[in-house]
Amino acid sequence: MAVQGSSDVLIDELYETTNRLRQFVEGRLREKGASVARLRALRMLARARQPLRMRDLSDMAGIAARTATAIVDSLERDGLVERVRHPQDRRAFLLRLTDEGVRCHREAEEVDRLALAEATAALDAADREQLRTLLARIRDHTV
Amino acid sequence: MAVQGSSDVLIDELYETTNRLRQFVEGRLREKGASVARLRALRMLARARQPLRMRDLSDMAGIAARTATAIVDSLERDGLVERVRHPQDRRAFLLRLTDEGVRCHREAEEVDRLALAEATAALDAADREQLRTLLARIRDHTV
DNA sequence: GGCATAAGCTGAGCATACTCACTATGTGCT
DNA sequence: AGCACATAGTGAGTATGCTCAGCTTATGCC
């Protein structure tokens, strides 16, 4: 029974772990004016070689287009990101990090790195790699 | 660089995996009038030997008390749960599953089990156990 | 050129998570 | 008894995720 029941609560544990990890990291990111979702958007924009459209951002982040709109709204309100009309496609925007956005990203990334290192202190490199592998296998089956 | 960067995106992968798994499971639970959060509450109530207070529920589910209020509100609105005044402590409620709630829980539990089995099809028993162990280690460091 | 269809984005509305502040009630100390 | 503090639950407000509907603009086919 214990063996068969071993997967029953897996989603709950995944859910709770994510919730707690998010709160843990967000508590540290807050003072930098960031959050997990906001940092993720900043990271995508910082890493991309080309300016991104809203759609690119939502695809890369694995979130709904509407959710990306909300995130970018808040980033724009705080002066971290700018929407510029796409020169060829008048339906689309191109997203650009402001100087403030670049600074915020850099600081938030460092805070995130430290918080994540703290949260995963009990995992060695092999454990982390194993965890990533297992997560990827779940993602492959939830399309 | 690849090795050092291995933990950088771990939280993003955990985040995205949870989001996708939740949507995957909720798509199947929806027709049963449930959701991941609602099923979790129903499960706690069904498994508890004693009637639970709001506080017991939020503690067991690992969520904020206010969030439990919202979940129970929705379950009560749909006639799945009842709040009964605690006979000794007039501040508290005791939560009781209705017959409809019991039926909903039973059906949702089965749907959840199947959906989870599908999502974790690429993981054998040892993988699942390993995943649970790794998640638990993260939880221990995010209190 | 013109019409049908697709794509980009956002408004509206919901669910689930949080914090903070508040009311009502219990508990414990003097 | 009475005051201080703790606990139970919820209202208010915010963030992040979703879907569906709708407007605007591109695209592709005749």
Automatic annotation (TrEMBL), chains A, B:
<dbReference type="Pfam" id="PF01047">
    <property type="entry name" value="MarR"/>
</dbReference>
<dbReference type="InterPro" id="IPR036390">
    <property type="entry name" value="WH_DNA-bd_sf"/>
</dbReference>
<feature type="domain" description="HTH marR-type">
    <location>
        <begin position="7"/>
        <end position="140"/>
    </location>
</feature>
<dbReference type="GO" id="GO:0006950">
    <property type="term" value="P:response to stress"/>
</dbReference>
<dbReference type="GO" id="GO:0003700">
    <property type="term" value="F:DNA-binding transcription factor activity"/>
</dbReference>
<dbReference type="InterPro" id="IPR000835">
    <property type="entry name" value="HTH_MarR-typ"/>
</dbReference>
<dbReference type="InterPro" id="IPR039422">
    <property type="entry name" value="MarR/SlyA-like"/>
</dbReference>
<dbReference type="InterPro" id="IPR036388">
    <property type="entry name" value="WH-like_DNA-bd_sf"/>
</dbReference>
<protein>
    <submittedName>
        <fullName>MarR family transcriptional regulator</fullName>
    </submittedName>
</protein>
